[in-house]
Amino acid sequence: MNSRERVIATLNHKEPDKMPIDCGGTIVSTISRTPHNAIKKLLGINSPQEPITNPIIDTVVPCPELLEKWQVDFRRVAMKAPSSLDEAGDDSQSFQATSAATDEKPIGFEFADEFGTIWRKAQYDFCPVDYVMKEFELDDLKEYKWPDPYDSGRVEGLEEEAKALYENTDFAITADIMCGGPFEQACWIREYATFLVDLYVNPKFAHTLLDMITDYDIGLWDAYLDKVGLYVQVVAQGDDIGMQDREYMSPELYKEFIYPRHKRLYDFIHSKTKAKIFMHTCGSVRKLIPYFIEAGIDILNPIQYVAKDMGLEGLKKDFGSELCFWGGGISTQIIPEYSLQDIEDVIKKNLDILMPGGGYVFSPTHNIQFECPPEATIKIYDSAVKYRNY
């Protein structure tokens, strides 16, 4: 099998010749800039600095030498920043990288995103510090001018890029995450605690905001999939709704507020492409998985198995016939505590659980972070290659 055939078989719950391996197919299953540079230095790779694929989490797609070494089956096509940001200056950015930027911003650097939320550089990535809608009332929300999802700069050259990958390579192609989901985007523009309180004391505001975000996201996917929908095998959407020990909200609140928007968004995506829908949400979300399936997702990422109720055996047993799993090969939260032999042993154990019957794509539980030694990262992907055969 080639990579594309392997991935298609896997995502249709069939055992392929080999387990698919991902590193760089999405902005949540790749390597951050700092550890990537450390790996290149250790291995003597002298390729140019890779462009940042997401300015907030400082991710890169691994260099070609590593993609080949680790037998990575995926290549991404990514929505670009809107042309309107070119007029806003260097201190404005979108969810997508504004350009093929490689320069590293200093700690404390701030930028405004398309919505007006201010993000500040911490040690290695950014966090929101000033939320554009935190003080909004309902009337303010109705007057707010949303970014244009159909800005032509977002999709410039994407059809040609996706078509070339489809016709000239045998890799599986992902349409990478390019917007926050309804819940997460609401938290980024309203502020986490404020929006969660809205669900109880200001439900009309919450419903209106969620509908507006969903409309915006659908507009982005409409523009995106018009260009790449014929060529991609996976469509990736994020909406972090889990914490380490619980969901952000009860299943009842999820069903009332978030589920209808997820369902509308995923139904729209399915209407535009035959690709499988990949949903990224960190943390403990087991109670919500039946609703995710009902809403229309095909792939759950990651499997954060050190979070509460996210044990691999139970998830595979209870949901493996309906969901594909992407991630969970090893927990990025505890990699620095492991010896190289520990890493190989854990990956072998987890693959023995996740690979049978197909439906599993290898990656760690999230991006490789700065605290992961380069030797450990190399061992992770070398182990995936070692144990990938069915």
Which key phrases capture this entry?
single chain, 390 residues, alpha/beta, TIM Barrel, seven-stranded parallel beta sheet, four-stranded mixed beta sheet, 13 helices, 13 strands, globular
Structural description of this entry:
By secondary structure, the chain is an alpha/beta fold. It has a single domain, classed as TIM Barrel, CATH 3.20.20. The protein is 39% helix and 12% strand. It has 13 helices and 13 strands. A seven-stranded parallel sheet has the order 3-8-9-10-11-12-13. A hairpin with a 4-residue loop joins strand 5 and strand 6. The protein is globular and about 60 Å long. The mean pLDDT is 94.
Topology:
Elements: H1 3-11, E1 31-32, H2 33-43, E2 59-60, H3 64-69, E3 74-77, E4 92-93, E5 110-113, E6 118-121, E7 126-130, H4 138-143, H5 158-168, E8 172-175, H6 182-190, H7 192-201, H8 203-228, E9 234-238, H9 251-272, E10 276-280, H10 289-295, E11 299-301, H11 312-319, E12 324-326, H12 340-354, E13 360-361, H13 374-386
Parallel strand pairs: 3-8, 4-5, 8-9, 9-10, 10-11, 11-12, 12-13
Antiparallel strand pairs: 1-2, 5-6, 6-7
Helix pairs in contact: 2-13, 5-8, 6-7, 6-8, 7-8, 8-9, 9-10, 12-13
Outline:
The protein has 390 residues and is α/β, with parallel strands linked by helices. It contains 13 helices and 13 strands. The strands form three sheets. The chain has a seven-stranded parallel sheet. A four-stranded mixed sheet has the order 4-5-6-7, with no helix packed on it.
